[in-house]
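INTERNAL TRANSFER SHEET
From: sequence group
To: structure group
Subject: Enoyl-CoA hydratase/carnithine racemase

Please process the attached sequence and return the structure record in the designated field. Keep the field labels unchanged so the import script can parse them.
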Amino acid sequence: MRDNDSSSANGSATVRFTTERDGRILRVTLDNPGRKNAIDYDTMVALGDTILAAATDSAVRVIVLTGAGGDFCTGADLSASAGEAQRGITSEMVMDAANRLVRAIVDAPVPVVARLRGATAGVGVGIALAADLVYASEDSYLLLAFINIGLMPDGGAAALVAAAAGRPLAAEMALLGERLPAPAAARAGLLTAVPADELDARVQAAVTKLAHGPRRALELTKRALNQATLGALDATLAAEKTGQSELLGSPDFVEGATAMLTKRKPVFAD
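Return from structure group:
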């Protein structure tokens, strides 16, 4: 079964992802390739709804997250911000939607597998690393570019990166805002890097095994792993919401966003 017309929780907005059921497997594909699968508020809300609904469906045994075209997700869709503001959607609401989505992925009782190609940036990093297994083509990369436009990481990225790779790499990614190629991310323990032509086969092999595994044992194993490594996630999500809400109203963000859109180097306040 394939659904190309997903809608937000209030049913009023078309959102940019598709779902496909293949037996016990639910495949969710971000579908905004013209914007490298940048994600807006409505899509985050509906995607969270989808993951939460799958968590209560005993027929779903594994969830696959991926992106249409050549990229996974390049973060929040800034081009949608003006329209969202006109509809009364605040930055706090966007942060809540992102946090709810990441928490839904982490808390899902079934394994979640992320398949990454091209760019995984911004909140896309949090969405991807919230998954239990992350497979990425060797020519792909992770990028926490928030600092380049006067913002801070969100989507739980600070906790998710540090839990897998440690504080030094988390700090390097967050404070320098530079690309981390998939092979380097793999060496740091963030993901499994796979030759591009082998990515689909590797993902399918893992998904097939998980789909036919012992559901309750997988659920309890996932829960124990999360308790051992992500105890600070809720506090991190709260700190990110507070900090990002402040920064989104700052002159540095205005300068950073303007510089990005006009393709020049930002000049931040002294």
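Handover comment: The two ends are 55 Å apart (CA to CA). Strands lie at 2-3, 17-22, 25-30, 62-67, 112-116, 119-121, 133-137, 141-143, 180-181, 192-194.
Transfer complete.
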